[in-house]
Amino acid sequence: MTEADPAIRVRDLVRSFAAVRAVDGIDLDVAPGEVFGLLGPNGAGKTTVIRVLTTLIPADSGSAAVLGLDVRREPMRVRRVIGYVPQQLSADGGLTGYENVWLFARLFDVPRREREARIHEVLDWMGVAEASGRLVSTYSGGMVRRLELAQALVNRPRLLILDEPTTGLDPVARGDVWERVLQLRDQLGMTVLLTTHYMEEAEALCDRIALMHRGRLRALGTPASLRDELGAGATLDDVFRHHTGDVLAEQGSIRDVRVARRTAGRLG
Amino acid sequence: MSASPAGPPAVSAEPPVSTGVDGVPVWRTFPSRLITLCLVELRKIRHDRTELYTRAIQPVLWLLIFGETMSRLHAIPTEGRPYLDYLAPGIMAQSALFIAIFYGIQIIWERDAGVLAKLLTTPTSRSALVCGKAFAAGVRASAQVVIVLVASALLRIGLDWNPLHLLGALVVVVLGSAFFSLLSVSIAGVALRRDRLMGIGQAITMPLFFASNALYPVSVMPGWLHVLSTVNPLSYEVDALRGMLLGTPSSIALDLGVLVGATVAMVVVASSLLHRLAR
What we know:
The complex is a heterodimer.
Chain A: E1 8-17, E2 20-30, E3 35-39, H1 46-53, E4 61-66, E5 69-70, H2 75-81, E6 82-85, H3 97-107, H4 112-125, H5 141-153, E7 159-163, H6 171-188, E8 191-196, H7 199-205, E9 208-213, E10 216-221, H8 223-230, H9 236-244, H10 254-267
Parallel strand pairs in A: 3-8, 3-9, 6-7, 7-8
Antiparallel strand pairs in A: 1-2, 1-4, 4-5, 9-10
Helix pairs in contact in A: 3-4, 3-5, 4-5, 5-6, 8-9
Chain B: H1 26-47, H2 50-73, H3 83-100, H4 103-112, H5 115-120, H6 126-154, H7 163-191, H8 194-210, H9 223-230, H10 233-245, H11 252-278
């Protein structure tokens, strides 16, 4: 692991579930300090790529490395350098905000002498310090998401992975998450990989985006360059339609729907 | 609520190996994870005690209704002891079993809520994670020990109140609960859905209970049930509890050996099936 290593390097990555090829031979490089967006319809393979990178599932073939660490051979080392926020609102409602972050500080072996300061630092930064003594079940959806970002940052990761971080959030909470993601890049130089369905989110946050469809990369570049390829006046929505067609989520599963509904339900 | 962001964490992304990427030895991380997950369970119990109260009902009913009634029948040989005395350790083990055997539902819920994925992306081995979860279930089940002890005191059941023996009983119940919760997590890894796990859990709970010495001695069982009882860890748990709380002749070393061995084996099975829930 050196400074010269890309934050993420994926080569010819393949992952299938039964007969479905969820990821079908993609190549990807993400530079350190970059906010990189993975876009695509449901079932495009975005979450599968994230699951391979976070060591949750192995790839069938190909390679994936995070900061020069092979995800298959060195999963524990990879986990030490990433922070992960899943699609669902996953903070534990039966614990307080403080306890949720404390749990992850312990699981990441944050040294005891630093632990308290580190927990309060991330709670403060995410704007949930005042509410940290309350049970998370009393939090709004936006607060839960900010708490999850605090959880993901307590180990001071070098790569933050966000799977649809603003799904179901109201516009104010969404803007709040955007603001913090941009601060992470601008002030800490942190690399951020995120997936999203929202084109305006990709436009606002991402230095570069990759459009996935049916497990393959269909387009890769800065938002401006992808728009320009389609011609003057084109929007990212146009780019999305151009590369994925107008077919609605033909590869999405009922599980995608359930997850989206569950998240929306928990957000009220 | 939306708060204006404070400054970002003071220190930028630190050298990622500062906490010892692979430098933290397993002998330190494993117990650390176990303690952490048990502490989390204790904190949850402290925040919401409703479950403790509602779960107190069943063991009390078993002792009050079943125990008192069977005591009058004198139908079960209990080596000269009152049946309630004989029954109390069995109910202690049974009520812990009934909690632990459905613990897999929590794992499936955690899978659905994204909690499991988040835990699996921490530097925690799968065996440490399932072990921590199992002993956290043991922490929850240990409340049943307290409930049965209080009920036993009120019903003037003749238990051995030696604190060391009570502590030993607690250890046995935690170990037994860890085994059955690991069994439940393993089933969750196969069933993958809450409704399926509920069905399987209900299907196996009663056979585990009745094919044990919780309600009656093994000597009164028909031969085939005797065999099942011999391979049923619940029997060893109850035997150890009776040895500690009633002073009945027991093979406590064998009982503990079986419980520890079965728990270790189930840690291996549960952690090898956990990947099915991570997909």
